[in-house]
Amino acid sequence: MTAATGLISPPMDGLNYSHNALCLWSFTRGQQQQQQQFRTPQRTTVFKAERVLLERGNDRGCPFDFVRFFAGSTDGEVLKTVCGRSTSPVVMASPVADSHVAFKSDRSISDLGFNFTYSYSDCGGVISGPGPVTVASPTSSSSNNYGNNVDCAWMLSFEEGSQIKLNLNRFALESSSDCSKDYFSVHNGGFSSSPVIWKGCGSTMPSTNPIVSMSNRMWIQFHSDGSGVARGFSFTAEQENVGCGGVLHGMGGNISSPTGGSGGKYPNSVECVWDFHAGSGYHAVLQFRDRFDVETVSGCSNDYLELRDYRRSVGRFVRIGERICGREVPPDPLVSGSERSKLVFRSNGQVNGDGFKISWKMECGAVYNDSSVDSGEFSSPGYPEPYSNQMSCNYTIVAPSPQDFVALTFLEPFDLERSATCYWDWVKVTEMETGVEKGKFCGSELPPAVATRGSMKVSFRTDYSVVGRGFKAR
User: Fold this and answer.
1) How many Cβ atoms are within 10 Å of 133's Cβ, its own excluded?
2) 456 closest CA partner among 405, 392, 397, 379
3) In the chain, what are the domain boundaries?
4) CATH for 6-121?
5) Quick check: helix, strand or coil at residue 382?
6) In CATH, what number does 374-473 get?
7) Each residue of 323-351: pLDDT tens digit?
8) pLDDT 10s digits, 371-380
9) DSSP percent split of the chain into helix, strand, coil, nearest 5
10) Which residues are 460's β-sheet partners?
11) Is the pTM of this model over 0.70?
């Protein structure tokens, strides 16, 4: 799409969009801007739809029909995915020089679809560190104020292992009680859907200025409506090399050691805590990659990494496995055993190293092996909201000894796609010592209690179509 403005919409079959459609639109801003996109603020591609009427998604996203906005090619990062029925305006502001938009529909439900207009704002773009970089709001040709109906987005991506310090130098926007008219928002991560650190309007500055991100990425958005303007804002962004840790959102990402020490090594005397909050039925899996250099000492008593799980039985976090240090990349992933866990990195005041890089993701299922706990509960992902299609989850309950019994009771409501032989969606209980299947269940009728001698494996599988609310077991 090379025009300055335009419209994109899906192929239609009568009043509704077509089944089994796959459409792709590409937006390019020109060679000079492409060469500069990772250096200085450029322009924002703004997509707006008065309403979007698509097949609804489920608790884990939009697996059926969707509009998806990409940074760069369709192999790039997903900036936003839209599905379901929204009768209020939908806006996506993309700061990336080359943007792609994809629409996909499946073979079942269709609806009226969408009409996205696109245009360009002379503001926003991708900013890379270390800075400092100072950016001001755009001004209209007739005054020193910003204009009406402006949308700008900035994607800040600095050196891995660093944080971003954002200082608001001046701030004056149209005021409203809930900042629904004109607003400036700062997001803790590299997407518009990342958690909001601060959203402001009027002349009230954030209570904490500068604002510091929890990672090396930040998303900033500015919006003005059709009435009322003001002088605008100016901010300065620069890299912070001493911070680390934070609350991690989403289904995956990357973390690394801080780089504030000499020669790019991690600093002395730091403590970093990354807090993983998985949804119901999920746990964190952490895989080391590229490099690993943490001071080597017997017992890893000086500098170390450790994973901790929250144990409800004792009301605190408990370490899983041994502390990790040395210079060899650990080959096995760290796997949490519950929905909430923490990764802790500590260094003392002496020797330091190059540090580490870790990729993390949320997976369904868990391993329950705390012998101090007599009972517990687990559930399908998202329960009691509908589970997703094409899931494969395993829950292992480790018995204290092969002679001990594990008893499992399903709780109301129990709701899986029904079929005569439980062929489509099902939950299955297996005695691990013998491999004997103790029961396979589906539908909405509550299954009977099940027991195994020794450890128990509970498997949950779903197909690509109908979903239910899932299950919870004790």
Assistant:
1) 18
2) 397
3) 6-121, 126-240, 246-364, 374-473
4) 2.60.120.290
5) coil
6) 2.60.120.290
7) 999 999 998 888 887 778 889 888 887 88
8) 667 778 888 8
9) 5, 45, 50
10) 393, 427
11) no
